[in-house]
Design brief:
By secondary structure, the chain is an alpha/beta fold. It folds into 2 domains: about 1-120, Nucleotidyltransferase, domain 5 (2-Layer Sandwich), CATH 3.30.420; about 135-240, Nucleotidyltransferase, domain 5. It has 8 helices and 15 strands. The strands form 4 sheets. Strands 1, 2, 3, 4, 5 and 8 form a 6-stranded mixed sheet that branches. A 5-stranded mixed sheet has the order 11-10-9-14-15, with helices on one face.
Length: about 260
Amino acid sequence: MQLFGIDIGGTGIKGAPVALDRGELAADRCRIDTPHPATPDSVAGVVAQIVDHFSSSDDSTDTADAAAPERTAPVGCTFPAVVKDGVALTAANVDDAWLGTDIASVFANACGRPFVVLNDADAAGIAEMRFGAGRGLTGVVAVITLGTGIGSALFVDGILVPNTELGHLEMDGEDAELQAAAKVREKEDLSWKKWAKRVDTYIEELDRLVWPDRIIIGGGVSKHADKFLPRIHTRAEVVPATLHNEAGIVGAALAAADWQASRQS
């Protein structure tokens, strides 16, 4: 079975059909830069382009495309905000026009399909817990995504505690993601060593407050874990994510599958 997953980030919006039994992309992902300003209309337009990209492939005779999700199937979608019942309650890395907006309805109207929307880090965490570095774990697990900002997903015995927003912990009197996000390393041209020191400070604060048994570091930067994770020193076990930058897409599709199953039960 396959469903679409779309991952909306501060710099890029990407999507692909996902093979739900394996937790893998079933086709090469389609990526489009996040528009600026990232208003509801502009972001919905990009999301529609990505859905249309794969929908048009449904009509091809290629065998890989023949297994694409049905056009009436729900689409799972991440969003960089606190999301309650499909509505954005924060807008840290997108336009303030999203505040109070029913994200699921905006995308459903633009694409003509039902949408299931959840916090981006929560989606990545769901993927890692089912198919990645958190698979089979009990206890307290924190999945931290380092990207444009810092996202967090917290699990207790495999159950998600949604919208934790632990990337906004105070760190040296400032929002942690303004100092330790992966984008900050690039923007300030920090060496891996200097950036790792900031990440270490953040992880220590997270560990002191939440006391997780394992911390999984995700986001695209997890591909370079060997350059900074050896410099992280904390009580909890810290490991790199295994799904890397595809976790959001996979987790979004899994959320759509769970929603679809609940509707059918």
